[in-house]
Predict the structure of Alcohol dehydrogenase-like C-terminal domain-containing protein.
Amino acid sequence: MRFGVYGLPTLFPPTPIGVGFEGAGTIVEAHESLGDSLIGKKVAFAQDPHSKSFQGTWRQYLILHKLQVIPIPDDADLDKFSSSFVNPVTVIGFIDVATKAGHKAIVHDAACSSLGKMLVKYCKKLDYPLINVVRREEQVKTLKDLGAEHVLNSSLETFENDLKELTHKLEATGFFDAIAGDTTGLILNNMPRKSTAYVYGALSGKAVSYSPGGFIFLENTISSFWLGPYLRSITEEERAKHIGTIIHDLSTGGAIFGSDVVQTFPLAEFEAAITAANEKASEGKTILKPHD
Protein backbone atom coordinates (compact mmCIF):
# COMPACT_ATOMS: atom_id res chain seq x y z
CA MET A 1 0.00 0.00 0.00
CA ARG A 2 2.79 2.40 0.88
CA PHE A 3 4.32 1.96 -2.57
CA GLY A 4 1.25 2.86 -4.56
CA VAL A 5 -0.31 -0.53 -5.31
CA TYR A 6 -3.68 1.15 -4.91
CA GLY A 7 -2.64 4.14 -7.02
CA LEU A 8 -2.42 6.37 -3.95
CA PRO A 9 1.16 6.52 -2.58
CA THR A 10 -0.03 8.79 0.25
CA LEU A 11 -2.99 6.62 1.22
CA PHE A 12 -1.60 6.24 4.73
CA PRO A 13 0.40 8.68 6.87
CA PRO A 14 4.15 9.00 6.23
CA THR A 15 6.43 6.40 7.74
CA PRO A 16 7.12 5.31 10.38
CA ILE A 17 3.70 3.70 10.68
CA GLY A 18 2.54 0.61 12.54
CA VAL A 19 1.70 -2.58 10.67
CA GLY A 20 -1.25 -4.93 11.13
CA PHE A 21 -5.00 -4.33 11.32
CA GLU A 22 -6.38 -7.04 13.63
CA GLY A 23 -5.55 -9.64 16.25
CA ALA A 24 -6.56 -11.27 19.52
CA GLY A 25 -5.10 -11.26 22.98
CA THR A 26 -5.58 -10.86 26.73
CA ILE A 27 -6.21 -7.61 28.62
CA VAL A 28 -3.35 -7.00 31.06
CA GLU A 29 -4.25 -3.47 32.22
CA ALA A 30 -7.37 -1.29 32.08
CA HIS A 31 -8.11 2.37 32.77
CA GLU A 32 -9.28 3.04 36.30
CA SER A 33 -12.71 4.09 35.01
CA LEU A 34 -13.29 0.52 33.81
CA GLY A 35 -12.30 -1.21 37.02
CA ASP A 36 -10.36 -4.46 37.31
CA SER A 37 -13.02 -6.85 36.00
CA LEU A 38 -11.60 -6.80 32.47
CA ILE A 39 -8.10 -7.87 33.51
CA GLY A 40 -7.37 -11.32 32.14
CA LYS A 41 -10.29 -11.27 29.68
CA LYS A 42 -9.67 -12.42 26.12
CA VAL A 43 -10.64 -10.08 23.27
CA ALA A 44 -10.43 -9.76 19.52
CA PHE A 45 -9.68 -6.34 18.08
CA ALA A 46 -9.15 -4.29 14.94
CA GLN A 47 -7.62 -0.89 14.22
CA ASP A 48 -8.35 1.72 11.56
CA PRO A 49 -5.05 2.90 9.98
CA HIS A 50 -6.54 6.37 9.53
CA SER A 51 -7.17 6.75 13.25
CA LYS A 52 -4.84 9.09 15.12
CA SER A 53 -4.40 6.36 17.73
CA PHE A 54 -3.37 3.70 15.18
CA GLN A 55 -0.36 1.71 16.38
CA GLY A 56 -0.50 -1.42 14.26
CA THR A 57 -1.11 -4.86 15.71
CA TRP A 58 2.32 -6.38 15.03
CA ARG A 59 3.50 -5.78 18.59
CA GLN A 60 3.39 -7.43 21.99
CA TYR A 61 1.30 -4.76 23.74
CA LEU A 62 -1.36 -2.49 22.30
CA ILE A 63 -3.42 0.37 23.77
CA LEU A 64 -7.03 0.24 22.62
CA HIS A 65 -10.26 2.05 23.34
CA LYS A 66 -12.95 -0.13 24.90
CA LEU A 67 -15.04 0.19 21.72
CA GLN A 68 -12.21 -1.32 19.65
CA VAL A 69 -12.28 -4.68 21.41
CA ILE A 70 -14.72 -7.56 21.15
CA PRO A 71 -15.04 -9.86 24.17
CA ILE A 72 -14.54 -13.53 23.31
CA PRO A 73 -15.02 -16.65 25.45
CA ASP A 74 -12.48 -17.35 28.19
CA ASP A 75 -11.61 -20.68 26.60
CA ALA A 76 -11.26 -19.22 23.09
CA ASP A 77 -8.28 -20.22 20.94
CA LEU A 78 -6.53 -16.89 20.29
CA ASP A 79 -5.03 -18.22 17.05
CA LYS A 80 -8.50 -18.79 15.61
CA PHE A 81 -9.85 -15.46 16.84
CA SER A 82 -6.84 -13.48 15.60
CA SER A 83 -8.54 -13.01 12.24
CA SER A 84 -12.11 -12.85 13.49
CA PHE A 85 -12.88 -9.30 12.49
CA VAL A 86 -11.79 -8.08 9.04
CA ASN A 87 -12.70 -11.00 6.79
CA PRO A 88 -15.85 -12.15 8.62
CA VAL A 89 -17.36 -8.66 8.86
CA THR A 90 -16.41 -8.03 5.23
CA VAL A 91 -18.27 -11.17 4.16
CA ILE A 92 -21.39 -10.16 6.08
CA GLY A 93 -21.00 -6.66 4.68
CA PHE A 94 -20.91 -7.91 1.09
CA ILE A 95 -24.26 -9.61 1.47
CA ASP A 96 -25.73 -6.71 3.40
CA VAL A 97 -24.71 -4.26 0.65
CA ALA A 98 -25.87 -6.62 -2.09
CA THR A 99 -29.31 -7.28 -0.63
CA LYS A 100 -29.91 -3.61 0.18
CA ALA A 101 -29.00 -2.77 -3.44
CA GLY A 102 -31.44 -5.36 -4.76
CA HIS A 103 -28.90 -7.75 -6.29
CA LYS A 104 -30.49 -11.18 -6.63
CA ALA A 105 -27.08 -12.82 -6.96
CA ILE A 106 -23.43 -11.74 -6.94
CA VAL A 107 -20.09 -12.57 -8.55
CA HIS A 108 -16.85 -12.82 -6.53
CA ASP A 109 -13.34 -13.17 -7.96
CA ALA A 110 -10.17 -14.47 -6.27
CA ALA A 111 -12.78 -16.72 -4.70
CA CYS A 112 -10.45 -19.34 -3.23
CA SER A 113 -9.00 -16.91 -0.69
CA SER A 114 -9.78 -17.28 3.02
CA LEU A 115 -12.41 -14.58 2.60
CA GLY A 116 -13.79 -16.29 -0.50
CA LYS A 117 -14.22 -19.57 1.33
CA MET A 118 -16.11 -17.81 4.13
CA LEU A 119 -18.33 -16.16 1.54
CA VAL A 120 -19.13 -19.53 -0.04
CA LYS A 121 -20.21 -20.97 3.32
CA TYR A 122 -22.14 -17.86 4.38
CA CYS A 123 -24.05 -17.66 1.09
CA LYS A 124 -24.83 -21.37 1.32
CA LYS A 125 -26.27 -20.85 4.79
CA LEU A 126 -28.42 -17.97 3.54
CA ASP A 127 -29.31 -19.75 0.28
CA TYR A 128 -28.02 -16.67 -1.57
CA PRO A 129 -26.77 -17.30 -5.14
CA LEU A 130 -23.02 -16.76 -5.56
CA ILE A 131 -20.86 -17.13 -8.68
CA ASN A 132 -17.23 -17.83 -7.75
CA VAL A 133 -14.39 -17.03 -10.15
CA VAL A 134 -11.01 -18.73 -9.74
CA ARG A 135 -7.94 -19.30 -11.93
CA ARG A 136 -7.10 -22.98 -11.48
CA GLU A 137 -9.02 -26.23 -11.72
CA GLU A 138 -7.89 -27.43 -8.29
CA GLN A 139 -9.48 -24.29 -6.84
CA VAL A 140 -12.75 -25.23 -8.53
CA LYS A 141 -12.64 -28.54 -6.68
CA THR A 142 -11.75 -26.86 -3.37
CA LEU A 143 -14.79 -24.60 -3.50
CA LYS A 144 -17.09 -27.34 -4.76
CA ASP A 145 -16.02 -29.45 -1.78
CA LEU A 146 -17.08 -26.56 0.49
CA GLY A 147 -20.53 -26.61 -1.05
CA ALA A 148 -20.21 -23.95 -3.76
CA GLU A 149 -22.75 -24.46 -6.53
CA HIS A 150 -21.32 -22.11 -9.16
CA VAL A 151 -17.55 -21.99 -9.75
CA LEU A 152 -15.98 -20.75 -13.00
CA ASN A 153 -12.36 -21.10 -14.08
CA SER A 154 -11.23 -17.85 -15.73
CA SER A 155 -8.36 -19.69 -17.47
CA LEU A 156 -10.73 -21.62 -19.73
CA GLU A 157 -11.52 -20.41 -23.25
CA THR A 158 -15.23 -20.72 -22.51
CA PHE A 159 -15.04 -18.51 -19.41
CA GLU A 160 -16.66 -15.37 -20.79
CA ASN A 161 -19.51 -17.27 -22.44
CA ASP A 162 -20.06 -19.35 -19.32
CA LEU A 163 -20.02 -16.22 -17.14
CA LYS A 164 -22.47 -14.33 -19.35
CA GLU A 165 -24.89 -17.25 -19.46
CA LEU A 166 -24.78 -17.79 -15.68
CA THR A 167 -24.99 -14.14 -14.62
CA HIS A 168 -28.01 -13.58 -16.85
CA LYS A 169 -29.67 -16.78 -15.67
CA LEU A 170 -29.22 -15.88 -11.98
CA GLU A 171 -29.71 -12.13 -12.54
CA ALA A 172 -26.38 -11.50 -10.87
CA THR A 173 -25.94 -7.72 -10.95
CA GLY A 174 -23.43 -7.29 -8.12
CA PHE A 175 -19.71 -8.04 -8.45
CA PHE A 176 -17.22 -7.90 -5.57
CA ASP A 177 -13.81 -7.45 -7.14
CA ALA A 178 -10.55 -8.21 -5.34
CA ILE A 179 -8.36 -8.06 -8.46
CA ALA A 180 -9.05 -4.77 -10.33
CA GLY A 181 -7.05 -4.11 -13.52
CA ASP A 182 -8.60 -5.56 -16.68
CA THR A 183 -10.57 -8.11 -14.66
CA THR A 184 -13.10 -5.51 -13.52
CA GLY A 185 -14.22 -4.67 -17.04
CA LEU A 186 -13.99 -8.22 -18.34
CA ILE A 187 -16.42 -9.53 -15.74
CA LEU A 188 -18.68 -6.48 -15.68
CA ASN A 189 -19.11 -6.63 -19.46
CA ASN A 190 -20.44 -10.17 -19.14
CA MET A 191 -23.07 -9.29 -16.57
CA PRO A 192 -26.62 -7.99 -17.09
CA ARG A 193 -27.26 -4.31 -17.75
CA LYS A 194 -27.24 -1.99 -14.73
CA SER A 195 -24.72 -4.13 -12.85
CA THR A 196 -22.34 -2.74 -10.23
CA ALA A 197 -18.74 -3.71 -9.47
CA TYR A 198 -17.63 -3.11 -5.89
CA VAL A 199 -13.84 -2.95 -5.97
CA TYR A 200 -12.32 -3.93 -2.62
CA GLY A 201 -8.80 -5.00 -3.60
CA ALA A 202 -6.08 -4.65 -6.20
CA LEU A 203 -4.38 -8.01 -6.49
CA SER A 204 -3.46 -7.22 -10.10
CA GLY A 205 -1.49 -4.18 -8.98
CA LYS A 206 -3.14 -2.24 -11.79
CA ALA A 207 -5.74 0.50 -12.08
CA VAL A 208 -9.33 -0.47 -12.85
CA SER A 209 -9.92 -0.62 -16.60
CA TYR A 210 -13.39 -0.15 -18.09
CA SER A 211 -14.72 1.32 -21.29
CA PRO A 212 -16.92 4.46 -21.31
CA GLY A 213 -19.51 2.54 -23.33
CA GLY A 214 -20.17 0.27 -20.39
CA PHE A 215 -21.11 3.24 -18.24
CA ILE A 216 -23.08 5.06 -20.93
CA PHE A 217 -24.92 2.38 -22.86
CA LEU A 218 -25.07 -0.52 -20.41
CA GLU A 219 -25.65 1.76 -17.40
CA ASN A 220 -23.14 -0.22 -15.37
CA THR A 221 -21.41 1.37 -12.40
CA ILE A 222 -18.18 0.89 -10.45
CA SER A 223 -18.20 1.51 -6.72
CA SER A 224 -16.06 0.35 -3.83
CA PHE A 225 -16.17 -1.54 -0.58
CA TRP A 226 -13.94 -0.86 2.39
CA LEU A 227 -14.70 -2.05 5.87
CA GLY A 228 -14.23 1.23 7.73
CA PRO A 229 -16.71 3.30 5.69
CA TYR A 230 -19.12 0.37 5.59
CA LEU A 231 -19.19 0.04 9.38
CA ARG A 232 -19.72 3.78 9.74
CA SER A 233 -22.66 3.57 7.31
CA ILE A 234 -24.69 1.07 9.31
CA THR A 235 -26.43 1.40 12.65
CA GLU A 236 -25.03 0.39 16.02
CA GLU A 237 -27.66 -2.35 16.18
CA GLU A 238 -26.52 -3.73 12.81
CA ARG A 239 -22.87 -3.70 13.89
CA ALA A 240 -23.74 -5.53 17.11
CA LYS A 241 -25.74 -8.11 15.15
CA HIS A 242 -22.82 -8.73 12.76
CA ILE A 243 -20.34 -9.20 15.61
CA GLY A 244 -22.77 -11.45 17.49
CA THR A 245 -23.18 -13.67 14.42
CA ILE A 246 -19.41 -14.03 14.08
CA ILE A 247 -18.65 -14.67 17.75
CA HIS A 248 -21.41 -17.27 17.97
CA ASP A 249 -20.05 -19.09 14.92
CA LEU A 250 -16.43 -19.04 16.09
CA SER A 251 -17.42 -20.09 19.62
CA THR A 252 -19.28 -23.12 18.28
CA GLY A 253 -16.63 -24.48 15.93
CA GLY A 254 -16.28 -21.78 13.26
CA ALA A 255 -18.16 -23.64 10.54
CA ILE A 256 -18.56 -20.44 8.53
CA PHE A 257 -16.10 -17.82 9.74
CA GLY A 258 -13.31 -20.00 11.03
CA SER A 259 -10.03 -19.89 9.11
CA ASP A 260 -7.48 -22.66 8.97
CA VAL A 261 -4.23 -21.50 10.55
CA VAL A 262 -1.58 -23.15 8.40
CA GLN A 263 1.53 -21.55 9.89
CA THR A 264 2.62 -19.44 12.85
CA PHE A 265 5.76 -17.32 13.22
CA PRO A 266 7.30 -15.30 16.04
CA LEU A 267 7.24 -11.54 15.39
CA ALA A 268 11.00 -11.43 14.79
CA GLU A 269 10.50 -13.64 11.72
CA PHE A 270 7.90 -11.38 10.08
CA GLU A 271 9.73 -11.33 6.73
CA ALA A 272 9.58 -15.12 6.48
CA ALA A 273 5.93 -14.95 7.56
CA ILE A 274 5.08 -12.54 4.74
CA THR A 275 6.71 -14.83 2.17
CA ALA A 276 4.94 -17.87 3.58
CA ALA A 277 1.58 -16.09 3.66
CA ASN A 278 1.87 -15.16 -0.01
CA GLU A 279 2.76 -18.73 -0.95
CA LYS A 280 -0.07 -20.33 1.01
CA ALA A 281 -2.79 -17.67 0.79
CA SER A 282 -5.39 -20.06 -0.63
CA GLU A 283 -4.68 -22.70 2.04
CA GLY A 284 -5.37 -20.62 5.13
CA LYS A 285 -3.95 -18.03 7.49
CA THR A 286 -0.35 -17.37 8.45
CA ILE A 287 -0.26 -15.57 11.80
CA LEU A 288 2.32 -13.80 13.91
CA LYS A 289 2.62 -14.64 17.62
CA PRO A 290 4.41 -11.67 19.22
CA HIS A 291 5.07 -13.41 22.55
CA ASP A 292 6.72 -16.51 21.06
Notes: Residues 87-226 form a domain with the Rossmann fold fold (CATH 3.40.50.720). The longest helix spans residues 236-251.
